[in-house]
From TrEMBL:
Protein name: Sulfatase N-terminal domain-containing protein
Region (Disordered): 286-315
């Protein structure tokens, strides 16, 4: 966010609600901008194309320490038994930054042999026809009383795509899930009260900053969302053959350097340092995808950025 963007956003916000809490939001956004402008990057950015993988799984907004907590636990020992968690410095602090720096002309040769299956709304800024296959899934209601991108749709479509990769001309595949990014399945009430408003608390990160949501409750909900998506990774690992890499487009700060969420351009490790784990995928052919590509709705066909951003807590 440029200074002029910040200024006009602040004026608009304070005209609609000149509360002390909105003043704090404005100051924190200004602080994030100053960090991005004057604090140097801690590490060199690493592009995913430089790594060795057949299937790349993007866990949107996944903190490295959250993944480490899962790997060291007992719930997913079978999935991560032979894996070592590493980290990489992401090319972006937001999905938009990551997508722009990952899918551009410099990597056109890699892109044309890659299938990209995604639920991220910012993919509307790239050329879909440059991929060997491009599939976008939109938000929908779920059994958890939240609107988000169903991870199972992406999983099933990815499995079907990879099993037919030879006839599709697919050499690599990227699956961009929207979890563990908010909304959290275990806390739907956090995302109802302020939906569609600019009031303080409309984003769960501001509620964490405000103290309305405790750090313990927030972390529990965040970890649960990560476990939700790792259930899908478990299915993938036994349904596709190849080297699978798990990483994130960016992380999320929960107070480090006074930053909450993932502001653009902030060189804070909680935002830019992401997990990197490799797994060996072996297709046991025991899983049959339930979701069929012919069942896709119109919302799935084209990224509708504004409606998706609202569901994800940005509007």
């Amino acid at each position: 966010m440029s200074f002029s963007d910040w200024f006009f956003d602040t004026v608009d916000r304070l005209q609609s609600d000149p509360s002390p809490k909105n003043v704090e939001i404005a100051l924190r956004k200004l602080w994030a901008g100053l960090l991005g402008r004057f604090v140097p990057k801690q590490q060199e950015e690493q592009v995913v194309w430089d790594e060795d993988w057949d299937i790349l799984v993007i866990l949107d907004g996944c903190r490295a320490d959250a993944m480490e907590e899962i790997v060291q636990g007992t719930s997913y020992q079978s999935l991560f038994s032979d894996s070592k968690i590493e980290t990489r410095w992401s090319v972006g602090g937001t999905s938009s930054e990551w997508i722009k720096k990952t899918f551009n002309e410099k990597y056109s040769e890699e892109i044309k042999e890659t299938a990209y299956i995604t639920g991220n709304p910012y993919t509307d800024q790239i050329q879909y026809d440059e991929f060997s296959e491009f599939t976008h899934f939109g938000i929908a209601s779920t059994e958890y009383d939240i609107r988000t991108v169903s991870p199972r749709k992406l999983t099933d479509h990815a499995i079907n795509t990879w099993r037919k990769r030879d006839e599709k001309g697919v050499d690599r595949m990227i699956i961009h899930y929207m979890q563990p990014h908010a909304p959290f399945r275990s806390r739907p009430e956090w995302f109802r009260e302020f939906k569609g408003t600019k009031k303080f608390g409309s984003k769960v990160w501001w509620r964490l900053c405000d103290g309305t949501v405790s750090h313990d409750d927030f972390w529990t909900a965040y970890i649960d969302n990560l476990e939700w998506i790792l259930e899908e990774v478990s299915i993938l690992s036994t349904s596709i053959d190849g080297s699978i890499a798990l990483t994130a487009d960016h992380g999320n700060a929960k107070g480090e350097w006074g930053v909450y969420g993932h502001p653009k351009g902030v060189p804070v490790s909680a935002v830019r340092e992401v997990p990197w784990i490799t797994l060996d995928g072996i297709d046991t052919e025991e899983y049959t995808p339930e979701y069929n590509n012919s069942d896709r709705s119109e919302d799935d066909q084209t990224p509708a950025r504004e409606s998706q951003l609202e569901a994800l807590g940005y509007k």
